């Protein structure tokens, strides 16, 4: 039972297809299949950033959903942006993250440390990070378990939202990032190290075996003590 990386892209430059100021659109990820649907550009030292000052920029990519727990993750530097987010969509052809017919779940972080977990346009949870610095990178990790319909937003490994019950209107078919330009975002606002990982659920047979082994261990410890 191992996690499976479906998509992984650091947005590093390679001197050929990935150059500073070059387009992300149409390129394959470093790991995984498909191509990016995007209006974002590569930053001077890598990373995905805005194409022009103040313009909203996004990157979406489709994948085959195995029907298990999914994690979408990226490292973000919010600085001049309105906010930066990672999320899940039904289709990679619609970049409007507030369109409830396609945007299913996303987590965002603002330059003031405010965070939100949203189900389309519906706010699920929100808060503010303490000791926040907008020029530092923060790891956004969005988790969704379709079996339990539980979602969570982790920032730097801490589950800031708690486990939230969220029923999605459609199946997840794509993931990506969004940089809200807010009329002020510059190329210092970045998304890097993007990934989508599937975590398989333990099989009923495995759970039974684990329970039996645990029971045997408890019995053995009890017999030693007596």
Task: Give an account of the 3D structure.
It comes from Terrimicrobium sacchariphilum. The protein has 226 residues and is mainly β. It has a single domain (4-225), classed as Sandwich (Jelly Rolls), CATH 2.60.120. Helices cover 10% and strands 39% of the residues. The chain has one helix at residues 204-225, and strands spanning 4-9, 37-38, 41-42, 48-49, 57-62, 69-77, 83-89, 103-109, 114-119, 122-128, 138-145, 150-155, 158-159, 164-165, 174-180, 190-199. The strands form three sheets. Strands 1, 6, 11, 12, 13, 14 and 16 form a seven-stranded antiparallel beta sheet that branches. A seven-stranded antiparallel beta sheet has the order 2-5-15-7-8-9-10, with no helix packed on it.
What distinguishing features does this structure have?
226 residues, mainly beta, Jelly Rolls, seven-stranded antiparallel sheet, 1 helix
């Amino acid at each position: 039972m191992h996690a499976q990386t479906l998509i992984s892209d650091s947005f590093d430059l390679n001197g050929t297809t990935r150059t500073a100021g070059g387009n992300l659109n149409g390129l394959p990820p470093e790991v995984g299949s498909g191509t990016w649907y995007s209006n974002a550009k590569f930053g001077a030292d890598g990373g995905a950033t805005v194409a022009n000052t103040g313009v909203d920029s996004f990157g979406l990519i489709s994948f085959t959903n195995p029907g298990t727990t999914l994690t979408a993750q990226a490292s973000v530097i919010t600085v001049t942006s309105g906010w930066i987010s990672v999320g899940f969509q039904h289709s990679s052809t619609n970049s409007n993250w507030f369109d409830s017919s396609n945007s299913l779940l996303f987590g965002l972080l603002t330059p003031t440390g405010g965070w939100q977990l949203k189900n389309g346009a519906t706010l699920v949870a929100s808060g503010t990070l303490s000791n926040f610095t907008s020029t530092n990178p923060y790891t956004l990790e969005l988790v969704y378990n379709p079996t339990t319909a539980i979602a969570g937003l982790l920032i730097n490994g801490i589950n800031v939202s708690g486990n939230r019950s969220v029923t999605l209107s459609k199946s997840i078919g794509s993931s990506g990032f969004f940089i809200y330009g807010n009329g002020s975002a510059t190329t210092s606002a970045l998304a890097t190290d993007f990934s989508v990982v599937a975590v398989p659920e333990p099989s009923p047979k495995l759970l039974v075996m684990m329970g039996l082994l645990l029971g045997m261990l408890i019995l053995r410890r009890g017999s030693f003590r007596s």
